[in-house]
Amino acid sequence: MSDVRTSPEPAATGTVPPPPRRPRTRPSSVLYDAPGPRARRTTLIASVVTVLLLVAAGYLWVYRPLDGKGQLSQEKWGPLVDPGNQYFQQVWNRVGTGFRATLTAAVLAIVCALVVGTLLALLRVQLRQLRLRRYPELSGPVARLLQGLTWLLNIVTRFCVEIFRGLPVVITIFFVARGLPEFGFDVDTLWYLVIGLTIYNSVVIAEILRSGMDGLPGGQREAAESIGLSPFQTTRMILLPQSFRIMLPALISQLVVVLKDTSLGFIIGYEELLSITKQVTQILHNPLQMYFAIGVIYIAVNYALSKLAQYVQRRLARGRRSAGVAQTAHTPAAVGAVRDEEN
Amino acid sequence: MNVLVDRFDVFASGFWLTLQICLLSAAGALIIGTLMAVLRISPVPPLRAIGTAYVTVFRNIPLTVVAFFTAFGLPELGSNASFLKIPVLDSLFTRLGMDLPYFRFFVLALSLYTGAFVCEALRAGVNAVAAGQAEAARALGLTFTQNLRHVILPQAWKAAVVPLGSVIIAMIKNSALAGFFGIVGDLSQAADELTSQEGLALIPVFIGISVGYLVMTVPLGILLDRIESRRPVTR
User: b/e string for B32-56 if b means 16 or more Cβ within 10 A?
Assistant: First the structure.
């Protein structure tokens, strides 16, 4: 996640940076020494050759075949780029509608997933603590019953989490859209998409938050309990807020995943960006150009979001260092986060 | 419930096709990802730029769009992805050699998409190796290849194996898109077929399809958890 690409800084090893800041190295400098004159010359030659090869390959394998098939013609691109074209207004209006629908679904899904995911994380952490409780103040059978109940709930939540984390989100959405009407729950396709995405992402978010709470130093919980907070208060007031803070970058990355997954709406007939594009291409017969355009839109939005995640991560890392909170809290959490954010 | 028993052949063949897609795409993604990771950490700036551009594009675009692109774009480029008709492989995975190109297109799309994530996992692994390790190796006079082979790659592999595994799990889940892209007979298309066309009860079909995917994803996840807890990554 941490992109260590910085402005080209001379990799001079002679000057030692000030101790509190770790020297930020470019990815290449881990493997290579600071280049000497010969290496610099080789690099320059290799760069020039690469650029030439790229241009040649682009011309031979992309430009020529596309041009040959007339894919670069005004007829195909006009509706997208030429304001004078008769379809220009309509096309961008439709794309705008689709984009709004995509954003609506994504925002609703992420909000629902956050709420459900937080509750789920709380539930799982609580259950895990309750499992160890012996209820000495209650009589034997009642205590045993409560213990059995927590054990059962623990198993059930664990089971659900594993199932929905392991299922493809497409399958979840598909069966939500097919299944809910059968049980008399007939709503707009938007809600099928939102529910499907929420089921999957709330489980993932719950796991992110839980690994954040597990990654906190044990002293946090001990301190909270020693000033008399109940276990639930400890989780709610001490652990969860810190977990949110640590896991904020991972949560933003999850937003990228949700935004990408809204494009699955075309499967259940929700009119978001992708399915509207599909409709447009059936009329204008320019699939390549349309998909190129919406590809650019998706990339722009998601790239901005992932940059935001990186910025937040850097800010948090800096804040933590200057605040002097134990840095150990960061490492296990970050390692855990890696597992969930990919999709 | 006897749908599961009666139509077991549908589920089984769907599972086999999904597994084929996953195996081929995993191989493709590992090849592409490694190549891109090498580009991204190379000392030549344009090569680095290619790697970065690749990762930026494919990480931020939905797999559905990539799949549409391969399905519509490749024919326009004058290719039917027939370069994937690899002699020995296509006798094993018969769909590769078929005239209908959708299987090849989808495998290609999934490989391209997953390749970006593989690249990031590998690169993160290499970056996780402390810079002092490589510096020490150079100071000892190891050549570049020796440095890679004996010092960096063993440690990078340790740091990269768990993220790589989760990338592959995500890929298996993403392969469920195949059924909605004109590939006949994989698990997700079987779900569509059995419920929409044949009108069978939803719940048993859902269970059958789910088991098909969970059989692949859950054991892999458990394995990864075990590796993760056994070998904590030293930083």
Answer: bbebbbebbbbbbbbbbbbbbebbe
